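Re: the request from the purification team.
They wanted to know what the chain is likely to look like in 3D before they choose a buffer screen. I agreed to run a prediction and write the result into the notebook, where they can find it.
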Amino acid sequence: MEIIVCVKQVPGTSEVEVDPVTGVLKRDGVASKMNPYDLFAMEAAMSLVEQYGGSVKTLTMGPPQAMAVLRETLYMGAEQGTLLSDRKFAGADVAATSYTLKCGVESMGTYDLILCGKQTTDGDTAQVGPEMAARLGLEHASNVLSIEAVKDGYVTVVSDLDEKRQTQRMKLPCLLCMEKDVNTPRLPSYKRKCAVQPTQLYTLSAADLATLDESKCGLKGSPTQVERIFPPDKNTDKTLHEGTPEELAGMLYQTLAARKLI
Protein backbone atom coordinates (compact mmCIF):
# COMPACT_ATOMS: atom_id res chain seq x y z
CA MET A 1 0.00 0.00 0.00
CA GLU A 2 1.13 3.53 -0.78
CA ILE A 3 -0.07 5.74 2.07
CA ILE A 4 0.08 9.51 2.53
CA VAL A 5 -0.24 10.83 6.09
CA CYS A 6 -1.07 14.51 6.58
CA VAL A 7 0.52 15.98 9.71
CA LYS A 8 0.74 19.43 11.24
CA GLN A 9 3.04 21.32 13.57
CA VAL A 10 1.04 22.91 16.41
CA PRO A 11 2.03 25.08 19.39
CA GLY A 12 3.40 23.04 22.26
CA THR A 13 1.72 25.32 24.78
CA SER A 14 -1.59 27.12 25.26
CA GLU A 15 0.30 30.37 25.95
CA VAL A 16 0.23 31.68 22.39
CA GLU A 17 -0.25 35.30 21.35
CA VAL A 18 -2.74 36.31 18.68
CA ASP A 19 -2.02 38.87 15.96
CA PRO A 20 -4.62 41.61 16.58
CA VAL A 21 -4.68 42.57 12.88
CA THR A 22 -4.86 39.22 11.07
CA GLY A 23 -6.40 37.20 13.89
CA VAL A 24 -3.93 34.32 13.41
CA LEU A 25 -1.62 32.74 15.99
CA LYS A 26 1.89 34.15 16.38
CA ARG A 27 3.94 30.97 15.98
CA ASP A 28 7.43 32.50 15.76
CA GLY A 29 9.52 31.66 18.81
CA VAL A 30 6.84 29.37 20.26
CA ALA A 31 7.74 25.79 21.15
CA SER A 32 6.03 23.40 18.75
CA LYS A 33 5.22 19.72 18.42
CA MET A 34 3.41 17.34 16.11
CA ASN A 35 -0.35 17.49 16.40
CA PRO A 36 -1.20 14.66 18.86
CA TYR A 37 -4.02 13.28 16.70
CA ASP A 38 -1.58 12.85 13.79
CA LEU A 39 0.53 10.45 15.83
CA PHE A 40 -2.34 7.95 15.78
CA ALA A 41 -2.66 8.36 12.00
CA MET A 42 1.09 7.72 11.65
CA GLU A 43 0.93 4.57 13.74
CA ALA A 44 -2.07 3.30 11.75
CA ALA A 45 -0.16 3.88 8.51
CA MET A 46 2.98 2.12 9.73
CA SER A 47 0.92 -0.84 10.98
CA LEU A 48 -0.78 -1.19 7.58
CA VAL A 49 2.57 -1.15 5.78
CA GLU A 50 3.93 -3.79 8.13
CA GLN A 51 0.88 -5.95 7.44
CA TYR A 52 0.36 -5.39 3.71
CA GLY A 53 3.66 -3.94 2.48
CA GLY A 54 4.22 -0.61 0.75
CA SER A 55 5.46 2.75 2.01
CA VAL A 56 4.40 5.85 3.92
CA LYS A 57 4.90 9.43 2.76
CA THR A 58 4.01 12.46 4.87
CA LEU A 59 2.74 15.91 3.95
CA THR A 60 2.44 19.14 5.89
CA MET A 61 1.84 22.83 5.22
CA GLY A 62 3.52 25.55 7.24
CA PRO A 63 6.57 27.78 7.69
CA PRO A 64 10.09 26.37 7.19
CA GLN A 65 10.33 25.25 10.84
CA ALA A 66 7.44 22.82 10.20
CA MET A 67 10.04 20.58 8.57
CA ALA A 68 10.75 19.35 12.11
CA VAL A 69 7.53 17.31 12.22
CA LEU A 70 8.36 15.72 8.87
CA ARG A 71 11.72 14.65 10.23
CA GLU A 72 9.92 13.12 13.19
CA THR A 73 7.74 11.08 10.82
CA LEU A 74 10.89 9.79 9.09
CA TYR A 75 12.26 8.73 12.47
CA MET A 76 8.99 6.81 12.97
CA GLY A 77 9.35 4.99 9.65
CA ALA A 78 8.04 7.20 6.84
CA GLU A 79 10.13 7.12 3.66
CA GLN A 80 9.54 10.68 2.42
CA GLY A 81 8.27 14.00 3.74
CA THR A 82 6.96 17.00 1.77
CA LEU A 83 6.56 20.51 3.17
CA LEU A 84 4.30 23.04 1.45
CA SER A 85 5.78 26.38 2.45
CA ASP A 86 5.14 29.78 0.90
CA ARG A 87 4.04 33.16 2.21
CA LYS A 88 1.12 32.84 -0.19
CA PHE A 89 -0.20 29.97 1.96
CA ALA A 90 -0.22 32.03 5.20
CA GLY A 91 -3.44 32.86 7.01
CA ALA A 92 -5.42 30.08 5.33
CA ASP A 93 -8.78 29.02 6.75
CA VAL A 94 -10.16 25.47 6.47
CA ALA A 95 -11.17 25.87 2.82
CA ALA A 96 -7.84 27.33 1.69
CA THR A 97 -5.86 24.83 3.76
CA SER A 98 -7.71 21.83 2.36
CA TYR A 99 -7.28 23.19 -1.17
CA THR A 100 -3.52 23.67 -0.80
CA LEU A 101 -3.07 20.23 0.76
CA LYS A 102 -5.13 18.73 -2.06
CA CYS A 103 -2.71 20.27 -4.57
CA GLY A 104 0.17 18.92 -2.50
CA VAL A 105 -1.28 15.41 -2.60
CA GLU A 106 -1.66 15.65 -6.38
CA SER A 107 2.06 16.48 -6.64
CA MET A 108 3.06 13.32 -4.75
CA GLY A 109 2.05 10.75 -7.35
CA THR A 110 -0.22 7.76 -6.91
CA TYR A 111 -1.50 6.55 -3.54
CA ASP A 112 -3.92 4.02 -2.10
CA LEU A 113 -4.87 5.73 1.14
CA ILE A 114 -4.67 9.12 2.85
CA LEU A 115 -4.68 9.24 6.64
CA CYS A 116 -5.23 12.34 8.79
CA GLY A 117 -5.69 12.98 12.46
CA LYS A 118 -9.29 13.65 13.44
CA GLN A 119 -8.50 17.32 14.13
CA THR A 120 -5.72 19.65 15.25
CA THR A 121 -5.27 21.05 18.73
CA ASP A 122 -4.86 24.62 17.49
CA GLY A 123 -7.87 24.77 15.17
CA ASP A 124 -10.15 21.96 16.40
CA THR A 125 -12.42 22.23 13.36
CA ALA A 126 -12.10 18.56 12.27
CA GLN A 127 -12.99 19.78 8.78
CA VAL A 128 -9.74 19.80 6.80
CA GLY A 129 -9.64 16.03 6.22
CA PRO A 130 -13.23 15.73 4.94
CA GLU A 131 -12.80 18.83 2.75
CA MET A 132 -9.62 17.38 1.25
CA ALA A 133 -11.52 14.20 0.42
CA ALA A 134 -14.28 16.21 -1.24
CA ARG A 135 -11.79 18.18 -3.32
CA LEU A 136 -9.98 14.99 -4.36
CA GLY A 137 -13.25 13.21 -5.16
CA LEU A 138 -12.58 10.48 -2.58
CA GLU A 139 -14.80 8.58 -0.20
CA HIS A 140 -13.91 9.30 3.40
CA ALA A 141 -14.66 8.34 6.99
CA SER A 142 -14.17 10.44 10.13
CA ASN A 143 -13.70 9.44 13.78
CA VAL A 144 -12.16 6.15 12.67
CA LEU A 145 -11.54 3.80 15.59
CA SER A 146 -9.96 0.92 13.70
CA ILE A 147 -9.00 -0.31 10.24
CA GLU A 148 -10.32 -3.85 10.14
CA ALA A 149 -9.11 -5.13 6.78
CA VAL A 150 -7.76 -4.18 3.36
CA LYS A 151 -8.80 -6.64 0.66
CA ASP A 152 -9.58 -6.67 -3.06
CA GLY A 153 -9.23 -2.91 -3.42
CA TYR A 154 -11.47 -2.07 -0.45
CA VAL A 155 -10.81 -1.02 3.14
CA THR A 156 -13.14 -1.81 6.04
CA VAL A 157 -13.17 0.59 9.00
CA VAL A 158 -15.10 1.12 12.21
CA SER A 159 -16.10 4.71 13.03
CA ASP A 160 -17.45 6.33 16.17
CA LEU A 161 -20.87 7.96 15.69
CA ASP A 162 -21.26 9.00 19.34
CA GLU A 163 -24.07 6.64 20.34
CA LYS A 164 -23.29 4.02 17.71
CA ARG A 165 -20.35 2.46 15.90
CA GLN A 166 -20.50 2.14 12.14
CA THR A 167 -18.66 -0.44 10.05
CA GLN A 168 -17.96 0.97 6.62
CA ARG A 169 -16.43 -0.61 3.50
CA MET A 170 -14.89 1.85 1.04
CA LYS A 171 -13.16 1.54 -2.29
CA LEU A 172 -9.51 2.57 -2.43
CA PRO A 173 -8.17 5.19 -2.74
CA CYS A 174 -9.98 6.93 0.10
CA LEU A 175 -9.29 9.21 3.07
CA LEU A 176 -9.60 8.33 6.77
CA CYS A 177 -9.52 10.67 9.78
CA MET A 178 -8.26 8.76 12.80
CA GLU A 179 -9.72 9.21 16.28
CA LYS A 180 -7.41 9.65 19.27
CA ASP A 181 -6.23 6.83 21.55
CA VAL A 182 -6.98 4.15 18.93
CA ASN A 183 -3.45 2.75 19.12
CA THR A 184 -0.10 3.33 20.81
CA PRO A 185 2.10 5.49 18.57
CA ARG A 186 5.64 4.18 18.24
CA LEU A 187 8.57 6.27 19.40
CA PRO A 188 10.98 7.83 16.91
CA SER A 189 13.96 5.58 16.26
CA TYR A 190 17.49 6.86 16.83
CA LYS A 191 18.73 4.36 14.26
CA ARG A 192 16.36 5.77 11.63
CA LYS A 193 17.34 9.31 12.65
CA CYS A 194 20.97 8.54 11.88
CA ALA A 195 20.01 7.01 8.52
CA VAL A 196 17.80 9.89 7.23
CA GLN A 197 19.07 11.42 3.99
CA PRO A 198 18.42 15.02 2.84
CA THR A 199 16.86 13.61 -0.34
CA GLN A 200 13.98 12.22 1.72
CA LEU A 201 12.69 15.72 2.53
CA TYR A 202 11.18 18.14 0.03
CA THR A 203 9.97 21.73 0.20
CA LEU A 204 7.45 22.91 -2.39
CA SER A 205 6.36 26.50 -2.96
CA ALA A 206 3.26 27.75 -4.72
CA ALA A 207 5.18 27.83 -8.01
CA ASP A 208 6.03 24.12 -7.63
CA LEU A 209 2.41 22.97 -7.49
CA ALA A 210 1.19 22.53 -11.04
CA THR A 211 -2.51 22.35 -10.17
CA LEU A 212 -2.51 25.29 -7.71
CA ASP A 213 -4.64 28.40 -8.30
CA GLU A 214 -3.06 31.04 -6.06
CA SER A 215 -6.36 32.87 -5.69
CA LYS A 216 -7.68 29.88 -3.70
CA CYS A 217 -4.95 29.66 -1.07
CA GLY A 218 -3.82 31.73 1.92
CA LEU A 219 -5.77 34.74 3.17
CA LYS A 220 -6.75 35.60 -0.39
CA GLY A 221 -8.48 32.26 -0.86
CA SER A 222 -10.14 32.11 2.56
CA PRO A 223 -13.91 32.72 2.40
CA THR A 224 -14.07 33.00 6.20
CA GLN A 225 -12.22 35.69 8.12
CA VAL A 226 -11.62 35.89 11.85
CA GLU A 227 -13.40 38.97 13.17
CA ARG A 228 -11.90 38.77 16.64
CA ILE A 229 -9.86 36.23 18.55
CA PHE A 230 -8.36 36.48 22.01
CA PRO A 231 -7.04 34.24 24.76
CA PRO A 232 -9.54 33.58 27.57
CA ASP A 233 -9.17 35.60 30.75
CA LYS A 234 -7.57 33.73 33.59
CA ASN A 235 -9.08 33.98 37.04
CA THR A 236 -6.95 32.48 39.77
CA ASP A 237 -8.67 34.26 42.67
CA LYS A 238 -9.73 31.96 45.46
CA THR A 239 -11.16 32.26 48.94
CA LEU A 240 -10.58 29.76 51.74
CA HIS A 241 -13.26 29.34 54.42
CA GLU A 242 -13.05 27.33 57.59
CA GLY A 243 -15.83 26.18 59.85
CA THR A 244 -18.34 23.43 60.49
CA PRO A 245 -20.23 21.86 57.60
CA GLU A 246 -23.28 23.93 58.51
CA GLU A 247 -21.27 27.17 58.57
CA LEU A 248 -19.55 26.38 55.29
CA ALA A 249 -22.90 25.56 53.64
CA GLY A 250 -24.24 28.91 54.81
CA MET A 251 -21.20 30.77 53.46
CA LEU A 252 -21.52 28.99 50.10
CA TYR A 253 -25.21 29.88 49.90
CA GLN A 254 -24.50 33.54 50.68
CA THR A 255 -21.74 33.70 48.04
CA LEU A 256 -23.93 32.18 45.32
CA ALA A 257 -26.84 34.41 46.27
CA ALA A 258 -24.65 37.53 46.23
CA ARG A 259 -23.54 36.67 42.70
CA LYS A 260 -27.17 36.02 41.70
CA LEU A 261 -26.36 32.44 40.74
CA ILE A 262 -29.28 31.13 42.82
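For the purification team: The radius of gyration is 22 Å.
Please add any questions underneath this entry.
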